[in-house]
Amino acid sequence: MDVELLDEKRESDYAEVFSSSSNHLVYHSLKYRSFLKSVLSDCEDKYLIAYEDGRPVGALPAFVKRNAEFGPVVNSLPFFGSNGGVMVHSKVSNPVEVKTGLLDAFRDLTDQEDAAASTIISNPLQPDDEIYEALTHYTFTDDRIGQLVELRNFNSRGNQDLSEQLMAYFHRKTRNHIRKAVKSNVEVGVKNDPEAFSLLEDLHVNSMEGIGGRAKTSAFFEAIQNNLRPNHDFMLYVAWFENRIIAALLVLFSNKTSEYFMPATDVNYRSLQPMSLLIKTAMEEAVRREMYYWNWGGTWLTQDGVYDFKSRWGTEDYPYHYYIRVRKPEILENSKETLLNAYPNFYVCPFQQLKR
Predict the structure, then answer these.
(1) Which residue among 159, 194, 290, 322 has the highest number of C-beta atoms inside a 10 angstrom radius?
(2) Quick check: 296 and 148 in contact, CB under 8 A?
(3) What is the CATH architecture assignment of 2-143+321-353?
(4) Of the candidates 143, 130, 107, which has an alpha carbon nearest to the alpha carbon of residue 327?
């Protein structure tokens, strides 16, 4: 088996590997690579693709962030916990061999880059715990709980109304929130234009400021529009009340998964529960598109409130892990703030492992 760096001539081979399995998430796709290259303009993509007898059999996406003082950091993948790790073509007869070759190549890449640290974020639909445990030579791990809804449980063409199917599946509290939004005359629709994205950005920034969080930059909102196709790769759902947009939800569609990517609500109208109605509406569309999964993304083990909110939508748990290899232990001598400034949008190490 040969492992090569992805170039333009090999992109169709990579796309074949990606589309071969419903377990490959949007984060592995070439469109998401284009999005990341726009957002992380000072970083370099290093995507690996494996061949056997000339056929593409697997791939592993990665980005490198270089820093003159501390050295490079390699992530598969960067940017707010984007899942990476190995992809294997569904028709491969020996997937373990392909995964082994790709993980060996990823380790060689980090050595060639003389990286201070590297991280692989596994795929909740294909966690591969045993092989990552055996082959990543990790220093630390960091755990997450993926929460997904199995959309194949629903049928948009059956006798029962799709809305009724979903409402019966949700927790009582969630059903009540949806009904409150409807009774309050909250309306929902889709607006994929630049004006709607500007409103999403304003809502997002205000929400993050309210909780002391890190807001995404304007480059994020521009990159979505420049690299993904409206109505095909994404939909921006909006909720309005009395002619004012009070909430927005950006959903990505790729392969067989719909991604709950960015929600934002005007704090002054949160009690009307507009986001609950937006989520239900977006789920209905995902079922109609014959998506297999609704992916809520990762939840930290300490985020009890977030976990409970997601679970009331009928989620199932899909644990996954960050596998962190620290090649230069001196990187741990820095503060959290120093590393965040040196490697924005990249994962370096669990902050509790820092010496200061």
Answers:
(1) 322
(2) yes
(3) 3-Layer(aba) Sandwich (3.40)
(4) 107
Tell me the pLDDT tens digit for each residue of 58-106: 999 999 999 999 999 999 999 999 999 999 999 999 999 999 999 999 9
Query: From CA 77, how far away is CA 207, in angstroms rounded?
Result: 25
| pTM > 0.90 | yes
Spatial separation of the C-alpha atoms in residues 54 and 99, rounded to whole Å: 17
The span from the CA of 204 to the CA of 181, in Å, is 20
Phi/psi of residue 188, nearest 5 degrees? -130, 155
Neighbours of 325 (CB within 10 A): 19
Residue among 267, 290, 325 at smallest CA distance from 119: 325
Size of the chain, expressed as the number of residues it contains: 356
Residue 236: other Cβ atoms inside 10 A: 24
* Arch. (CATH architecture) of 148-318: 3-Layer(aba) Sandwich (3.40)
Domain extents in the chain = 2-143+321-353, 148-318
Read off the tokens for 171: 């927790």
Looking at the DSSP bridge assignments, the partners of residue 2 are 51
pLDDT digits (tens, 9 = 90+) for 208-261: 988 888 899 999 999 999 999 999 999 999 999 999 999 999 999 999 999 999
